[in-house]
Each structure stands twice: as C-alpha cells, then as structure tokens.
C-alpha cells in the first residue's frame, strides 16, 4: 500500500508504507459498507481518505486473496457496471468479527503512538 501524505499540490511525493496489518483493516472496513470489486475497493479507500491513501494493485489483490483464504471475505464473479466480468468481494460473519478485533488493535496502537508523540 502506498500512502501519500503530502498536500495535493506538492511537486514531489513521498510514499511511505503503512504498518503491516493496516491494509487488511482498511479493506475489511471498506467491505463493511457493502460488496465491491477489487478496483472499487481502491477507489473507495482513496475517496474516503480524501486522496491521502491509495492501494496499488500489486498490494490490493494479494491482500484480497489472503482475506478470502482466511474466510474473512467471500468472492463471486459478477458483471461490473462497465459490462465486464469482475470478482466482487463481500465481508463474511468471520470478517465482521475480525474487523472488530483489528479496530481494537488499531485503537490501542494509535493511542500508544499518540502518547509517545505527545508533549514531552
């Protein structure tokens, strides 16, 4: 996953990596909103983060396949809005439970980082 943290008008762009596990959390959260094809997951992430976060396909599709193997998402082939065949992913009951676990972990981690970065 590539994270673009600079203002949109910046000439150069740094693309730091997110912490491992964050991508799964974000994908599960996006799929909580409803079934989506792979490209749509990336579009939803970019849109919901005000263009700060984007997933390259080399990270997105392996993550979706991994989540499917773990039973957290289920996939089925459907016709996309462009009249092409696409694999749509939806969150399973196990995926909803895992999302709750991941959100709790993220909250603890972000609170700990905030404490470290807080006033000295």
Description:
- The chain has helices at residues 22-32, 38-48, 57-69, 93-117; strands at residues 2-3, 36-37, 53-54, 73-79, 85-91.
- It has 120 residues and is α+β, with helices and mostly antiparallel strands.
- Helix 1 crosses helix 4 (93-117) and helix 2 packs across helix 3.
- The protein starts with a strand and ends with a helix.
- The model has no long low-confidence stretch (mean pLDDT 87).
- A 3-stranded antiparallel β-sheet has the order 2-5-4. The protein has a two-stranded antiparallel ribbon with strand order 1-3.
- The protein has one domain: Arc Repressor Mutant, subunit A.
- The chain is built from 4 helices and 5 strands.
- The radius of gyration is 16 Å and the shape is globular.
Short précis:
This protein has 120 residues and is α+β, with helices and mostly antiparallel strands. Helices cover 50% and strands 17% of the residues.
Structural class: alpha+beta
Average the pLDDT over all residues and give the rounded result. Answer: 87
CATH superfamily: Winged helix-like DNA-binding domain superfamily/Winged helix DNA-binding domain
Q: Which strands sit side by side, in order, in the main sheet?
A: 2-5-4
Portion in strands = 15-25%
CATH architecture: Orthogonal Bundle
- What portion of residues is helical? 40-55%
Assembly state here? single chain
């Amino acid at each position: 996953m590539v994270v673009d943290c600079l203002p949109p008008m910046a000439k150069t762009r740094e693309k730091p990596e997110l912490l491992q596990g964050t991508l799964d959390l974000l994908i599960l959260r996006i799929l909580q909103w409803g079934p989506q094809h792979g490209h749509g997951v990336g579009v939803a992430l970019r849109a919901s983060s005000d263009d700060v976060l984007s997933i390259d396909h080399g990270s997105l599709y392996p993550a979706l396949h991994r989540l499917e193997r773990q039973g957290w998402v289920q996939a089925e082939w459907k016709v996309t809005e462009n009249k092409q065949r696409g694999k749509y992913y939806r969150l399973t009951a196990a995926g909803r439970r895992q999302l709750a676990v991941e959100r709790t972990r993220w909250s603890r981690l972000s609170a700990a980082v905030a404490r470290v970065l807080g006033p000295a």
